[in-house]
């Protein structure tokens, strides 16, 4: 497949990117695999001294992947919608891509118009770009797999609900705050230095994850998680209508053919009904899993041999698949790249780490690399203490997005230095995979915007005509805050603080107000594909990558390491996997000097905030050498005049009664 993709953008993007771097089927639901509840397996006992049950060992076989594809193809035929169908395992390996005869090769990034048109570039992101349709199918499959776990099953429709400017998104909800995971769609990026790339050579480490997504996470319905015996083992994504969009009104019921095709694919591989999104609420709003129902599907066709070669064929996708079928990896094994930590890697018996497939931790705990930028970098002992204390908080916290009620929170914790170097990453056993990359984004974002060099680094990013103008955001922030010294380290920014400045309305959700200075220039130009600085920092990388995919590798792929900010040191970019703009991180200080940051992701945003803030506080009490920013410099001391009304930024927000094991309340107050 050789096509021209967003050529006007690519020419400009090249200016900066040249330097950047035999088996059983799943347990059917009631009615012979056409729906109903899938039983939850009996959990294995937690490790000695632990509190979590690790997921049961399950994975997709080649035969099961064939069944899933055949079921989806049968529904696509019944609906006369030739489509691309992609299947991944839990850590993002593409197990198969099937292209039906007549499936469109291209799709438009949202046909919904913003500001009356579908602009591309000019500081308004990817809205309206034309890209390979197969990248949409893969992104949807990754979304279903990465957002889900043994305690929650989310789809790309769920993602659509939680990333828009009002929550829940609907014409009648204008004026409400933005979605709780506003900005998460720009994670798992193709340029991320954490997310792994397809390895056609095979061998040890070839299948480790988490793997990257060509477009980040998807808000377009048609992506679901795949479960086997109640355990999440992968995801399916379908693209056939040429419109890679989002659901702007979650109060009605859509008839979405792509979603129905994907739902047919997972019959017999459905998540347990008790953990689907419609059983979970956020801010009092029940989430959505699917508008399609098994009752509205055509009779299932599960014979892969009957459709392979007649209805379409397996296809290779540059950067993702060689066109063959493969079995999925088993999450929790060395081969998957995510496994239980050895005692020498992390002392808590519940901890999981990322590995290289050969037995070695990818991100072992280590000291800071930024001597010369800071007087006394973080020591390895300090990093270990921060992570241990944060993991203790996580292990006792009540989850928001997991079922059954009063489950323990599960998430990923990342610590970085002021250069953005990873000093350690640790996970609970069943945290959703998306939180791995996002926790690192959060840690780096809080550290970057608290850094004295933040403004200088943004001003040095080359302008990409027709794509982005990153330097312009610096003056916008300074004008907005009335502070010429903004972005020079005078204040400590948590991700909640930077998120305030990144919303299309300020204060969040209040229409007829000015947009935040890190958002799009006009609130009327917002879309999930055009959110402001977060998009502009990586738009060129994404354009370069999808062009590489479309042209079969004839053009260069994006480098490892997102954004055009200057290197902090050779090979080091402070925000090398993009920034994140929803809560869950704080910077780390020694006295009055910034020395790093901690980020947490995988559960509710208040829970993520608490683990980062309280974990760091407790490490500071334990060590006496570091801690949170002094209250006097935290971003919640910044006041913004909004039409004569004074509004403060926010720093962190912790749950009122967060713990399962103690009655403690308001645990972050006064710290």
Outline:
Helices cover 24% and strands 12% of the residues. It contains 15 helices and 17 strands. The chain has helices at residues 7-17, 30-33, 62-78, 133-146, 156-162, 257-265, 304-307, 380-396, 434-450, 454-459, 472-481, 495-501, 533-536, 539-550, 605-623; strands at 84-89, 94-100, 106-108, 130-132, 223-228, 231-239, 281-282, 285-286, 312-314, 338-340, 352-354, 412-416, 422-427, 585-590, 593-601, 639-642, 645-648.
Break the fold down into its secondary structure elements and pairings:
Blueprint: H1 7-17, H2 30-33, H3 62-78, E1 84-89, E2 94-100, E3 106-108, E4 130-132, H4 133-146, H5 156-162, E5 223-228, E6 231-239, H6 257-265, E7 281-282, E8 285-286, H7 304-307, E9 312-314, E10 338-340, E11 352-354, H8 380-396, E12 412-416, E13 422-427, H9 434-450, H10 454-459, H11 472-481, H12 495-501, H13 533-536, H14 539-550, E14 585-590, E15 593-601, H15 605-623, E16 639-642, E17 645-648
Antiparallel strand pairs: 1-2, 1-6, 2-9, 3-4, 5-6, 7-8, 10-11, 12-13, 12-15, 14-15, 16-17
Helix pairs in contact: 1-14, 3-6, 8-15
């Amino acid at each position: 497949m050789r096509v021209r993709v967003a050529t006007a953008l690519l020419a400009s993007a090249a200016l900066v990117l040249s330097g950047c771097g035999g088996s059983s089927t799943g347990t059917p639901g009631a009615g012979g695999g056409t729906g109903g509840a899938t039983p939850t397996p009996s959990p294995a006992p937690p490790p000695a001294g632990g509190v979590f049950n690790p997921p049961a060992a399950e994975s997709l076989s080649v035969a099961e992947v064939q069944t899933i594809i055949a079921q989806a193809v049968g529904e696509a035929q019944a609906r006369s919608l030739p489509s691309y169908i992609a299947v991944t395992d839990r850590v993002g390996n593409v197990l198969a891509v099937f292209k039906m005869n007549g499936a469109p090769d291209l799709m438009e990034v949202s046909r919904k118009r913003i500001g009356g048109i579908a602009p591309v570039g000019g500081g308004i992101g990817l809205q309206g770009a034309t890209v390979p349709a197969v990248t949409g199918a893969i992104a949807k499959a990754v979304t279903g797999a990465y957002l889900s776990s043994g305690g929650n099953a989310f789809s790309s429709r769920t993602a659509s609900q939680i990333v828009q400017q009002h929550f829940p998104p609907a014409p009648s909800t204008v004026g409400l705050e933005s979605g709780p995971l506003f900005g998460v769609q720009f994670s798992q990026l193709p340029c991320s230095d954490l997310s792994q790339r397809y390895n056609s050579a095979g061998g040890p480490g070839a299948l480790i994850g988490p793997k990257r997504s060509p477009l980040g996470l998807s808000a377009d319905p048609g992506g679901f998680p795949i479960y086997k015996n109640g355990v999440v083992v992968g995801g399916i994504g379908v693209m056939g209508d040429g419109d890679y969009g989002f659901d702007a009104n979650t109060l009605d019921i859509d008839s979405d053919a792509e979603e129905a095709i994907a739902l047919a694919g997972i019959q017999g591989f459905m998540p347990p009904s008790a953990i689907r999104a419609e059983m979970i609420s956020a801010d009092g709003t029940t989430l959505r899993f699917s508008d399609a129902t098994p009752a509205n599907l055509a009779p299932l066709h599960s014979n892969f041999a009957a459709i392979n070669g007649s209805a379409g064929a397996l296809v290779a996708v540059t950067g993702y698949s060689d066109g063959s079928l493969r079995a999925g990896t088993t999450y929790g094994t060395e081969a998957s790249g995510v496994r239980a930590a050895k005692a020498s890697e992390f002392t808590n018996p519940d901890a999981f780490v990322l590995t290289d497939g050969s037995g070695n931790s990818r991100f072992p705990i280590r000291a800071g690399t930024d001597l010369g930028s800071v007087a006394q970098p973080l020591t390895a002992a300090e990093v270990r203490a921060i992570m241990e204390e944060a993991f203790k908080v996580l292990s006792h916290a009540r989850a928001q997005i997991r079922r059954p009620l009063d489950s323990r929170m599960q998430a990923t914790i990342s610590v970085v230095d002021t250069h953005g170097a990873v000093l350690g990453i640790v996970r609970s056993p069943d945290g959703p995979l998306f939180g791995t990359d996002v926790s690192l984004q959060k840690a780096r974002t809080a550290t970057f915007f608290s850094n004295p060099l933040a403004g200088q680094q943004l001003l040095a990013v080359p302008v990409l005509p027709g794509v982005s103008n990153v330097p312009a955001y610096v003056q916008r922030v300074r004008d907005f805050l009335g502070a010429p010294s903004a972005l020079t380290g005078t204040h400590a920014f948590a991700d909640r603080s930077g998120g305030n400045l990144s919303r299309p309305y300020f204060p969040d959700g209040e229409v007829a107000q000015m947009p935040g200075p890190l958002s799009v220039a006009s609130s009327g130009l917002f879309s999930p594909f055009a959110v402001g600085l977060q998009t502009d920092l990586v738009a060129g990388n994404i354009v370069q990558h999808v062009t590489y995919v479309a042209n079969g590798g004839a053009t260069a792929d994006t480098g490892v390491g997102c954004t055009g900010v200057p290197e902090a040191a050779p090979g080091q970019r402070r925000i090398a996997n993009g920034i994140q703009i929803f809560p869950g991180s704080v910077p780390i200080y020694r006295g009055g000097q910034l020395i790093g940051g901690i980020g947490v992701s995988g559960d509710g945003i208040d829970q993520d905030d608490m683990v980062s803030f309280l974990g760091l506080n407790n490490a500071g009490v334990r060590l006496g050498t570091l801690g949170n920013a002094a209250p006097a410099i935290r971003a919640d001391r910044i006041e913004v005049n909004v039409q004569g009304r004074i509004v403060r930024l926010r720093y962190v927000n912790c749950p009122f009664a967060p713990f399962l094991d103690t009655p403690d309340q308001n645990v972050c107050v006064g710290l």
